[in-house]
Amino acid sequence: MDPSQVKLPPMKNLTVDNITENTIRINSLCQDPRTKYVLERLVTHLHDFARETRLSTAEWMTGIKFLTEVGQITTDVRQEFILLSDVLGLSILVDSIDHPKPPGSTEGTVLGPFHTHEAEELAYGGSMSHDPKGEPLLVVCTLRDMQGNPIEGVKIDIWETDSSGHYDVQYAGRDGPDGRCVLRSDNSGVFWFNAITPVPYPIPHDGPVGQLLKKLHRHPYRPSHMHFMFEKEGFDHLITALYLRNDPYETSDAVFGVKDSLVVDLGKAGPEYAKKYNVSEDHALLKYDFVLVSDEETSELRARNSKIALDKLGRKVKIVNGLPVPELD
Ligand code: BEZ
Ligand code: FE
């Protein structure tokens, strides 16, 4: 671009005190209001972070080296950036902002790096786990909307570790997917399957994120859980998990995913379920009723929450599609 065509005030002699406004000014040529807003806030917070911490060059180089290592260890099956976002509490924060849940609906939680798109569809009664050392578990669930109507035909992705706390993708020589499946809810909103009782496990901690946790004197463990993802047109995509009560890590999850509404007690099948689902009476049983929120209910709540949050911060912005953008583009 011809420099004489750029309509900007001259930018030189920049200082600790005026670098921020000038960086924002040059970025403001951006034509997309949302990108412009996100970059404006990012630059503001990054610069304030450097000013407030009096960041040294050596410290910033340590940060750059760390981020480089996070990138270098990342592959198709090892997503270190997601781990970093998880241990910094950013993943759960973004999920709570983007997928707000009204009272009575099922809360979301962290996705983590172990969801894949290769799970096979399971027939009702099939088992998603082939680990002979796992404790067999029958899982029986219902799926309803906020008005209490059953939801049919929802695609449900479910995944969990084996009894040693590893996901299938963590084994180099695996034959194919295991510990994961896809199901569809039936016309009464019910789905059920066989699995194994989840166990606690450490998130991958042999890389830069593990080093960071060690430096912070934090453990890498997640409490026993099973992941669920629900998709159906017209409903807000729900990524969640169920956690077992009284797990040793229930209140110290390395990635901040546990919410009381997602903590469950395992029971026993008893005579009724034993007969209906063809298991023994003392077979372990997990029962849960999920409630999905419609896209419309979610958009309204997201926009309302954005307005309240931005008013609280005293920011003069417009809310477009539930998201803040500059008031004057
Ligand atoms: C998981 O639960 O699979 C998970 C979540 C966050 C980081 C690592 C693993
Ligand atoms: Fe997990």
Write structural notes for this entry.
InterPro entries: 1_2-HQD/HQD, Catechol_dOase_N, Intradiol_dOase_C, Intradiol_dOase_core, Intradiol_RC_Dioxygenase. This protein has 329 residues and is an alpha+beta fold. It has eight helices and 13 strands. It has helices at residues 19-27, 33-53, 57-73, 80-87, 90-98, 208-215, 270-277, 295-312; strands spanning 136-144, 155-159, 180-184, 190-196, 201-202, 221-222, 225-231, 238-244, 263-264, 267-268, 284-291, 317-320, 323-326. The protein has a five-stranded mixed sheet, with no helix packed on it. The chain is globular and about 80 Å long. The two termini are 23 Å apart. The chain binds benzoic acid and fe (iii) ion.
> Which ions, cofactors or small ligands are bound in this entry?
benzoic acid, fe (iii) ion
Whole-Å distance between the termini?
Answer: 23 Å
**Rg, Å, rounded:** 24 Å
User: What's the CATH topology name of the domain at 103-293?
Assistant: Protocatechuate 3,4-Dioxygenase, subunit A
Summarize this entry quickly:
By secondary structure, this protein is α+β, with helices and mostly antiparallel strands.
Topology diagram in text:
Blueprint: H1 19-27, H2 33-53, H3 57-73, H4 80-87, H5 90-98, E1 136-144, E2 155-159, E3 180-184, E4 190-196, E5 201-202, H6 208-215, E6 221-222, E7 225-231, E8 238-244, E9 263-264, E10 267-268, H7 270-277, E11 284-291, H8 295-312, E12 317-320, E13 323-326
Parallel strand pairs: 1-11, 8-9
Antiparallel strand pairs: 1-4, 2-3, 2-7, 5-6, 7-8, 10-11, 12-13
Helix pairs in contact: 1-2
Bound molecules: benzoic acid and fe (iii) ion.
Keywords: Dioxygenase, Iron, Metal-binding, Oxidoreductase
Domain Intradiol ring-cleavage dioxygenases: 129-292
Organism: Aspergillus nanangensis
